[in-house]
Write a structure and sequence with these properties.
By secondary structure, the protein is an alpha/beta fold. It has 15 helices and 18 strands. The structure holds 4'-deoxy-4'-aminopyridoxal-5'-phosphate. Catalyzes the transfer of the alpha-amino group from S-adenosyl-L-methionine (SAM) to 7-keto-8-aminopelargonic acid (KAPA) to form 7,8-diaminopelargonic acid (DAPA). It is the only aminotransferase known to utilize SAM as an amino donor.
């Protein structure tokens, strides 16, 4: 790749990048191909060599309104000039108050308190801390464990890692710094399949045996994202809520990936009609324009936290409630409240169902699944992300496979024609992998 091409007078030194700049989950010894982006508009990224790519990832599932949206840009520009940042200790401001009001209005009735966190992982840490402090305030300090399910993903910080899939490689690496939690089997029945309540036998037994140590059950509602892009049955979630009530443990829902329309409902918990005691939000909260997350909880949880020996909730990062981030979130949520996302997501869903269906017959495709604005081809073997990435770039799209999954989660604003380009690229690449003569080129360690 040409490392010195310039577009819009922007030179990106990709050689320096490869030598000095760490990217997520990469080695500094063996840098993977990295593409320089100079701008993005609508659903298109422009590379430094002028190539335009249709984004199938919404930049890790966050940019639901697309890039450079005039409403979000204008709101942020205005706020930057007025108040970019101020400490949140002892000070508040309109963007934080307005955002909190919107979140309380949009989420279920039980969720009345908002803690603004910096990122999704931190929102999960905050949720876990709230649960532990809650039980201290309820004179039950032994309740310190989190019960979760396998194949989950909740972030990269230590407490968040402790609830990620135990076989996913995060646990072994960091030894005893990763707290031991309780893992039940992941939900089995798919979103559309028949549900058998027997599925919850194992989690129910674990709750029965250990509820005196369990502070909360933590789960991604309806869709397990980075742990495998698995969509599970809504009745699993409603039965789980009942078990939490029965055994007196809190339910923490991690809606960081699913929140704000991605699965076809505003929040994925609405598929099951359940309420969380604690809810984690992130990613699309700001439309993906700047990092911000939120942990919401009920009056009851907030009261328990306040009754704990500390008397206060023990968390408070420097950039808490950053006004610029809150402003981006308000603009993004105003766009969500205009409701266009509903028709957008449902037409994305039906188009993906139609266009991806044939891939189920490809030799190396084991499953095709679609829910809301998430479309997945599950392949037989682990994929070589770098090699496939280049193929996708050659086809004019930005799709980043991981593990054995080729998936898209496009911005809701994508046009039908652009979506066809994404699904066609997915099929073209998946089909090629299916050809035995090409297998060694594209399937490797991952
Ligand atoms: N929870 C879920 C369900 C996620 O999908 C992610 C990110 N993929 C996180 C938590 C962590 O969020 P962040 O990367 O913003 O820390």
């Amino acid at each position: 790749m040409n490392t010195t091409n310039q577009v819009n007078n922007q030179f990106i030194d990709l050689d320096f990048d490869a030598k000095h700049l760490w990217h997520p989950y990469t080695s500094m010894n063996n840098a993977l191909p990295t593409y320089g982006v100079v701008s993005a508009e609508g659903v298109e990224l422009t590379l430094n060599n002028g190539t335009k790519l249709i984004d199938g990832t919404s930049s890790w599932w966050a940019c639901v309104h697309g890039y450079s949206h005039p409403k979000i840009v204008a709101a942020m520009q205005h706020q930057t000039a007025q108040l970019s940042h101020v400490m949140f200790g002892g000070i508040t401001h309109r963007p934080a108050v307005e955002l909190a009001r919107m979140l309380v209005d949009m989420t279920s009735e039980r969720l009345t308190k908002v803690f603004l966190a910096d990122s999704g992982s931190i929102a999960v840490e905050v949720a876990m801390k709230m649960a532990l402090q809650y039980w201290q305030g309820r004179n039950n300090p032994n309740k310190q464990k989190i019960l979760t399910v396998k194949s989950g993903y909740h972030g990269d910080t230590f407490a968040a890692m402790s609830v990620c899939d135990p076989e996913g490689g995060m646990h072994t690496m960091f030894g005893e710094l990763v707290t031991e939690q309780l893992f039940a089997p992941e939900p089995k029945a798919r979103f559309t399949e028949c549900f058998d309540a027997e599925e919850l036998q194992s989690i129910s037994n674990m709750l029965e045996d250990n509820h005196q140590q369990i502070a909360a059950v933590l789960i991604e509602p309806i869709m397990q994202g980075a742990g495998g892009m698995r969509f599970y049955h809504a009745e699993y979630l409603s039965a789980l809520r009942k078990l939490c009530d029965k055994y007196d443990v809190l339910l923490i829902l991690d809606e960081i990936a699913t929140g704000f329309g991605r699965t076809g409902k505003l929040f994925a918990y609405e598929h099951a009609n359940v309420e969380a005691d604690i809810l984690c939000l992130g990613k699309a909260l700001t439309g993906g324009y700047i990092s911000l997350a939120a942990t919401m909880c009920s009056d009851e949880v907030a009261q328990g936290v306040s009754d704990s020996p500390a008397g206060v909730f023990m968390h408070g990062p420097t950039f808490m409630g950053n006004p610029l981030a809150c402003t981006a979130a308000i603009a993004s949520l105003e766009l969500i409240n205009e409701q266009h996302w509903q028709t957008q997501v449902s037409s994305i869903e039906s188009q993906m169902k139609t266009e991806l269906a044939e891939a189920v017959d490809y030799t190396n495709v084991v499953d095709v699944r679609v829910l809301g604005a998430v479309g997945v081809l599950e392949m037989k073997s682990t994929l070589n992300t770098a090699a496939l990435q280049q193929q996708f770039v050659d086809l004019g799209v930005w799709i980043r496979p991981f593990s054995n999954l080729i998936y898209i989660m496009p911005p809701y604003t994508i046009s039908s024609c652009q979506l066809t380009q994404l699904t066609s690229a997915m099929k073209a690449v998946a089909k090629q992998i299916s050809l035995p003569s090409n297998d060694t080129n594209f399937i490797s360690h991952g």
